[in-house]
Amino acid sequence: MRHLVIDSASEACSVALLAGGAVVDHRHEVIGRGHAERLVPLIAELAGGGKADVIVVGCGPGSFAGVRIGVAAARALALGWQVPVHGFSTLALVAASAADAIAAADGALVVMEGGHGQWFVQPFAADLTPRAAVRSLLPEDAVALDDALVVGNRAEPFVARRGSGQALAVLPDARAFLRLPSGALLDQPSPIYGRAPDAKPMPKSISAA
Asked: Cα–Cα distance between 120 and 19 in angstroms, integer?
């Protein structure tokens, strides 16, 4: 059974075709922006056009646009190919991308760019299970967390600001899906934003008495 893995929630655009517990083909590009234009062509470049029996997609948290693009593409392909689609946490994929280092350190804190001056943070155990829920924190609040190993695209500024620990700069890599624990799959792929939306609903108008 082939799995197509998609993640576009960070500056990386990463796709992989997996079968029998091995990587059949993959593409991984750090593009910053432009996921909407690059994601589907990357999938098409995979062996067999990326056609798979199951699709799994990173649901964030991460870039609002990147998360939505990845989830929308996965749903569309699943509909077109008539195959099931599931989701997973992008922060869990980041942890899986550093699985060996996290196991050696007996756990780590994943720190990723959250936008608006905040960082997404979530601690993971040595077996890559989350030790707490994801939070979006200002850097000055985030550095109160004391995990020795810090992993992610904001790991280096985190450790520099805190003044202690080991930083491992890591981006989500679709190939690392193979290292995710069995309980990491979400039945339905829906965006995980990690913080409240920027837009606020308009207050209801008050009728004159």
From this structure: 31
